[in-house]
Amino acid sequence: MHTSNHTLDVPVLIVGGGGCGLTASILLSDLGVDHLLVERHSSTSVLPKAHYLNQRTMEVFRQHGLAERIYAVGTPMSMMRKVRWRTTLGGDGPFDGRTFHEIDAFGGGELVATYERDSPGPSSNYPQIRLEPLLREEAERRGPGRVRFNHELTALSQDEQGVTATVVDRTSNQPLRIRAQYVVAADGGKTIGPMLGVRMHGPTDLGRIVSSHISADLSAWWDDACLITWLINPDYEGVFGSGAMVPMGPTWGRHSEEWVVHFGFPPGQETPFDEAGVVPHLRALLKLPALEMKVHKVSNWQLDAVLADRYQIGRVLFAGDAAHRHPPTTGLGLNTAVQDAHNLAWKLALVIGGRAGPALLESYATERRPVGMRNVDWAMFTAMNHGVLDAGMGFSPLQTPELRRANFEAFFADTPMGATRRARAAEVFATQRTEFQAHDLEIGYAYDTGALVPDSSSRPPRDPLGGRYVPTARPGHRLPHAWLTVAGQRLSSLDLVGDGARFALLTGPDAEAWRAAANAAFAAAKLPLQIVTVDEAVDPDGSWRKCCGLHAAGAVLVRPDNHVAWRSAGLSADPAAELAGVLATVLGEH
């Protein structure tokens, strides 16, 4: 970054200092790409916002040396392993403190073995109000002087050579002219998208949510193993189906100091709660009339399920909430945003470094927009399925208070019909595994076209309910995880690309021609490459080679983001020419 004629020249300008923008800054620093991040707010999030970090996101953070910091302060798996639906926390009535249902969640409980088999690390939980300061600290440490809060973008234009932006320092009110090769719009869709005519397609105002962020001592009533509890209080005269409650730390489990409770309202309805008025509603919902609490913030927001019509306009690339916004169910917002940044960062590094053509950046939209669409649709589906759960318990927002209470009596009755009602509810609750056990949705997403060379194989069948993940090294898919022994070290297969713009070539023992051809092709392209011969010493039982389809004379080329770029079952007639062509295709050079 340098200044000339009152213009700050920088390869990449990141607009937005939330989870997506800060992650992009960290990754670009690791990749040696100079950049500037500007954020119009003076601080990171003042609201808890998103909190669940799925396994794929934790793999990204692991690759870049962040995961252990998050695991050290995030929710232990033992305290996030299930979710539940309950009548109340307190009270001494016949239906108080009763549990409708519990389900294993996020890789805990009976899911542990499956999640441990498929990834080098568990999922985690750390709300944005705490995560963003951690990410900001890392971004500032890795890119000193490159992160500027309280700086607002006010104008942007572009030409064939670059982008010109005006950013105002809101402390001094002084404008700054910035010239960048590329812009990452991670501003939540508030500024750059409207400037450039990006349209967000999909339904909006699907419902109104009021989120109350409080401090309170709930240690006498909380279940340590539970991350989310839905409260369905027979006596609460507020909003039907309200009361999704989540601990927010910094201590976890029953001793959490902070909490969030979400109240839901129908679309278009005014939301009457504020900091002063929400306390009696919280006490009534929890059935804890004497509970002392401090209300930090009451925020009002609406449910949207929208996707940007474009992820790239010229030299501007859209990521995170600027590209997709959806209900919080399944926790896909922040996770998809981090994964957007992961897909984009290595491509920016190679293009700016002159080692790839601009077409490589076009693959960002080609690859990520279908994932964004799938995740918007999924979040919408799992949000709407909560209404199915209500029906499965026999509840309806149209019921009178008298009928509603009669339903509670029937549900918990010690009678054959009570048992039948509870059994029906359990069947219906199992469908919400689409939200809490979405293992394949979270780590099994793949790219059909983009910076890759497809082969003739078929995509493995996907579980329509998003749970069962089938590992495969088919081009476009995330490389399957396994613990391998490489040069005497125990490494995840995902570690082989390192934390930079390095590719990895995995070959069978009889693939010397592929190894020689790869060394020549990558040396010519001036790109780092890790080559690993996967034999019995590296993969003793051969199970990983089998799931990857890696034959003795075969090879698999892995991109820096751990997605497979190409594979071959055996040797070709001209390995050097084939790999040179593969690399040119992946890098967008033809």
Note the quaternary state here. Answer: single chain
How many separate structural domains? 3
CATH superfamily of the largest domain, called what? Answer: FAD/NAD(P)-binding domain
The total of beta strands comes to 27
Give the class-level CATH name of the largest domain: Alpha Beta
Terminal CA distance reads 31 Å
CATH architecture of the largest domain: 3-Layer(bba) Sandwich
Roughly what fraction of the amino acids lie in strands? 15-25%
Shape: globular
Are there runs of 5+ residues with pLDDT below 50, and where? none
What summary fits the major beta sheet?
A: 9 strands, mixed
Computed CA radius of gyration, to the nearest angstrom = 25 Å
**CATH topology annotation of the largest domain:** FAD/NAD(P)-binding domain
Q: DSSP helix count?
A: 16
Helix content: 25-40%
Mean pLDDT: 94
Structural class: alpha+beta
Describe this structure as you would to a colleague.
There is one protein chain. This protein is of the alpha+beta class and 590 residues long. It has three domains: 2-74 and 126-202 and 306-377, FAD/NAD(P)-binding domain, CATH 3.50.50.60; 76-122 and 207-302 and 393-445, D-Amino Acid Oxidase, subunit A, domain 2 (D-Amino Acid Oxidase, Chain A, domain 2, 2-Layer Sandwich); 447-586, Glutaredoxin, CATH 3.40.30.120. The chain is 31% helix and 24% strand. It has 16 helices and 27 strands. The strands form six sheets. Strands 1, 2, 3, 8, 9, 10, 11, 19 and 20 form a nine-stranded mixed β-sheet that branches. α14 links the parallel β24 and β25 (529-533). The longest helix has 34 residues, at 359-392. It is globular and about 80 Å long. The mean pLDDT is 94.
